[in-house]
Design goal:
heterotrimer, A mainly alpha (234), B alpha/beta (234), C alpha/beta (267), A: 234 residues, mainly alpha, MetI-like fold, 10 helices, 0% strand, globular, B: 234 residues, alpha/beta, Rossmann fold, 2 domains, 6-stranded mixed sheet, 3-stranded antiparallel sheet, 9 strands, 38% helix, 25% strand
Chain lengths: 234, 234, 267
């Protein structure tokens, strides 16, 4: 109990004193997860819409696979990405191991199935409403995809938040592919892990509180953004 | 693209015939009204002509290739499908799909908003309109592309007098401006007001296709006689 | 949209990812890092040699694996048999002794196994094997774990016989100590990590000072023959620095709780 209070106090001081290291690590956390999220959305949203508007042979199968991949264990992803980018691995020449790029790739792999699934769910519902109309208006497939994505943007933002949450709190994969290198690949979660292994629980907890407030502020910012948008009534 | 030639068209669902065989020739002029009891196949016939249904047998042929003909048609569904956007954006949508520039689409949409008397609600979410307003938007959205062929499936079924009048006026005007209209209804009064010719459906079969007066004065069958008399048709 | 803006803004301010020519990657054992010695030493190496040293902190087992894969330029570990094997198979050019510290047995202050009274390390472990109170093992094939296995072997005891009181935790030194604290268990640890560890709970050093507890740290540069991208020249500079007089002074002067924890012994 005492440790929680100490952690809170320490978190408070770290934040108000604008601790340089804390800021760097937090920004790096944001950078890695937001970039991974960006990559994921570029893949996930059109993919989800495509699955909704197209009938193809293995459609059900693909959806099942996607849903299963939602539970992809980060550590396994980390290991796969490590093996891929290790100097002895197939993509070793790129020299991406122990860089933020490798961390972004690992997180994107973890996040993409999740937001594809969530996006698919919501666009599926919308498509049930829109299908006849869009076919009647003689829309092309890309136009249908665009319309679905635009009109379900709120649900998509929620999907992004879910993806962000999964990414920012993730430690297993980025520990392996990032290496938790000071001043290079250390992010909030790996720093927490490090401080825990040093037995400095209050500092670890302080970093944890910073992580939580970061996640909360992103969530609130998104909410605020959605609210100010015109016609935010549905 | 006229005449529209329908020859021996049948629609079967799971081995059960729900429509046809239908033979029909439609010319460009005027308003054709589709009459018949519930379940007589009115909706199915409209959807079939519009190309939303897969034919089990027969052919639907326009004088131009079906692909081109599809671009000249609009469809108003019995329950209006509103895009989750503002009224103005709903009206702009078919134009934007047809690659109209944004200013042109807005100009055209504003014109139609005035026609249906919703100037005060242009930025309102269309899904929050009343039933009558939604149907008016749906009709305007269907006509905004100046289609040569407009299908309407019981467009005023659940509307009160005033809303019904607004829509009927628009339809009469559209018919004058070279838009061929086929609409289904089971409101005999509406058929009397609007129809040039009447197609009477009974249990999936077309019992007659003739001019309005001919239909009303000498009903082609017992079922039609009962329908005109307002009896319950079994 | 907000995402894109945010991401690009952060990308603009935080310039990472730029692999530079003077960047060297070392895999180091967690005790080197958890003890705090790395923070004491590495900044000096970086300023003196104008290098950017990136430490990947892992157990000895994983460090050796990373070295084999060519993912790091050199490793600093503490498991002599593994190191010799590593040199023999040609992954490292040679093995250079740098310093040593010692292992200690931590245990609950009540000392239920009475190892305080043991006259040797083997005696202490025999006492543990008889009483079979909670014992935490690293279980991660790190240097410390290998040392523990070596001792059990010497007294001809299979830790499986402990039953569920033998906790193989598969974690680094610090986390393993945390678990030992929680279970009030005995654990083999290097002294430096223990002294630097904040969460000490009810544990104290119950046995130390046997020759078998000597813990030698060595530096092994990865062979350029195996991995052509290895920055051999920079690694050589680091090695020279580590065996220098300055290194000696810094290592020997690293004090925790008034105790010298590492002893320089490069030759």
């Amino acid at each position: 109990m005492n440790e929680i209070l100490q952690g809170l106090a320490q978190a408070f001081w770290l934040i108000v004193s604008l601790d340089t290291e804390l800021i760097t690590i937090s920004l790096r956390s944001l950078y890695v997860t937001l970039t991974a999220l960006l990559v994921s959305t570029i893949i996930a949203f059109p993919l989800a819409a495509l699955i909704v508007v197209t009938r193809f042979r293995f459609r059900r199968f693909v959806i099942t696979i996607l849903n299963a991949l939602m539970g992809l264990p980060p550590v396994v992803v980390g290991l796969l990405v490590y093996i891929l980018f290790s100097r002895s691995g197939p993509l070793g020449v790129l020299g991406l191991l122990y860089t933020t790029s490798a961390m972004i790739i690992a997180q994107a792999i973890i996040i993409t199935p999740l937001i594809t699934s969530v996006a698919h769910q919501s666009m599926q519902g919308l498509w049930a409403d829109y299908r006849d109309l869009l076919i009647s208006i003689n829309t092309s497939k890309p136009q249908r995809i665009g319309t679905l994505m635009w009109d379900s943007r709120r649900a998509l933002i929620t999907a992004c938040l879910a993806g962000f949450g999964r990414g920012i709190g993730e430690v297993g994969a980025i520990m392996i592919v990032g290496g938790n290198i000071d001043n290079a690949t250390r992010v909030l979660t790996t720093a927490i892990s490090l401080e825990t292994s040093r037995g400095d629980f209050s500092l670890a907890l302080a970093l944890g509180f910073v992580l939580i407030s970061l996640a909360l502020s992103v969530s609130f910012a998104t909410h605020w953004f959605g609210k100010t948008e015109r016609g935010g009534l549905w | 693209m006229f005449p529209l030639e329908v020859s021996s068209v049948e629609i079967n669902i799971k081995g059960k015939r729900i429509l046809g065989p239908i033979n029909l020739l439609l010319k460009q002029e005027g308003i054709s009204v589709l009459l018949g009891a519930n379940g007589s196949g009115k909706t199915t016939l409209l959807e079939t002509l519009h190309g939303l249904r897969k034919l089990s047998k027969g052919k639907v042929r326009w004088s131009i290739p079906n692909k081109l003909a599809a671009k000249e048609q609009s469809f108003v569904f019995q329950t209006p499908v509103m895009l989750r956007r503002s009224v103005l954006e709903n009206l702009m949508y078919p134009l934007r799909v047809r690659r109209f520039s944004k200013p042109n689409a807005i100009k055209e949409a504003m014109h139609w908003v005035k026609k249906i008397g919703l100037e005060k609600k242009i930025i309102q979410q269309a899904t929050l309109l009343s039933g009558g307003e939604m149907q008016a938007v749906a009709v305007a959205r269907a006509l905004i592309t100046k289609p040569k062929m407009l299908f309407l499936d019981e467009p005023t079924a659940s509307l009160d007098g005033l809303a019904k009048k607004t829509i009927e006026d628009i339809l009469v005007l559209a018919a004058k401006n070279d838009t061929k209209i086929i609409m289904s209804t089971h409101d005999l009064g509406q058929a009397k007001r609007l129809a040039d010719d009447i197609i009477y459906l009974h249990k999936g079969l077309m019992e007659s296709h003739c001019l309005k007066d001919e239909f009303l004065n000498s009903p082609p069958s017992d079922a039609a006689k009962q329908f005109i008399a307002g009896d319950i048709i079994i | 949209m907000i995402r894109i803006l945010f991401a690009s803004a952060v990308l603009f301010f935080v310039q990472i990812n730029t692999a530079t020519a003077n960047q060297v990657r070392l895999a180091v054992t967690s005790s080197f890092h958890n003890s705090g010695l790395s923070d004491h030493l590495i900044p000096h190496v970086e300023t003196d040699l104008k290098l950017d040293i990136q430490l990947v902190v892992v157990g000895t087992g994983q460090a050796i694996k990373l070295g084999q894969n060519g993912d790091v330029d050199a490793i600093l570990v503490h498991s002599k048999p593994d190191e010799e094997e590593f040199v023999k198979t040609g992954f490292a050019k040679h093995r250079r002794q740098i310093m040593f510290n010692e292992y200690v047995i931590l245990g609950p202050s009540t000392d239920p196994a009475n190892i305080r009274l043991a006259n040797s390390l083997l005696d202490a472990f025999r006492r543990l094997s008889k009483v079979k109170t909670n014992f935490v093992s690293r279980g991660d094939l790190s240097g410390t774990h290998k040392k523990e296995i070596e001792i059990w072997k010497k007294i001809n005891f299979k830790p499986e016989k402990y039953g569920k009181n033998y906790l193989s935790v598969g974690s680094n030194m610090g986390k393993a100590i945390n678990i030992a604290v929680a279970f009030n268990a005995y654990i083999l640890s290097d002294k430096a990590t223990w002294l630097n560890h904040k969460n000490k709970g009810n544990l104290i050093i119950q046995f130390e000072g046997d020759q078998l507890l000597h813990n030698q740290y060595s530096f092994l540069p990865i062979s350029k023959k195996r991995h052509s991208h290895i920055k051999s020249k920079l690694v050589e500079k680091i090695e020279d620095w580590l065996v220098s007089e300055k290194s000696k002074n810094l290592i020997n002067s690293y004090i925790i709780e008034n105790k010298q924890v590492f002893t320089f012994n490069a030759n």
